[in-house]
């Protein structure tokens, strides 16, 4: 297994077992480790409490040197989410460094 594949599996397992957010589902889309579908519960005591939110994570060929792309499948009104594409637009995504984790993007 290449170091990139090992990193992806490590990232995938960290997110799947994350204790900071309640992951309902985390799986590869059609067995492709570059595309994930993640479902998670909204944070308690927020406007998103009791919601289940679906996102797609896409890892480009240069990951981890290039940032991941995270898209909300669930329609969401939020200033950091493009209302048309669902793309998450956080500063940390545009200032991506290879040591940052995908898990960190989720919380």
Layout of helices and strands, plus pairs?
Blueprint: H1 3-16, E1 23-29, E2 32-41, E3 52-58, E4 69-72, H2 91-94, H3 102-106
Structure overview:
The protein is an alpha+beta fold and about 110 residues long. It has one domain (about 5-105): Ubiquitin Conjugating Enzyme. It has helices spanning about 5-15, 90-95, 100-105, and strands at about 25-30, 30-40, 50-60, 70. A hairpin with a 2-residue loop joins strand 1 and strand 2. It is globular, with a radius of gyration of 13 Å.
Summarize the structure.
With 107 residues, this protein is of the alpha+beta class.
Jot down its keywords.
4-stranded antiparallel beta sheet, Ubiquitin Conjugating Enzyme
SSE string: HEEEEHH
Overall mean confidence score, pLDDT: 92
The helix content, as a percent range, equals 10-25%
Give the name of the CATH architecture.
Answer: Roll
């Amino acid at each position: 297994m290449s170091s990139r594949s090992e990193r992806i599996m490590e990232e995938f397992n960290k997110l799947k077992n994350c204790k900071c957010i309640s992951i309902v589902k985390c799986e590869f889309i059609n067995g492709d480790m570059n595309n994930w579908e993640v479902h998670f519960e909204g944070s308690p005591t927020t406007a998103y409490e009791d919601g289940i939110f679906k996102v797609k994570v896409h890892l480009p060929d240069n990951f981890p040197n290039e940032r991941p792309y995270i898209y909300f499948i669930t329609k969401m009104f939020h200033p950091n989410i493009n209302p048309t594409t669902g793309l998450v637009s956080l500063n940390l995504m545009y200032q991506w460094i290879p040591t940052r984790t995908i898990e960190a993007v989720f919380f």
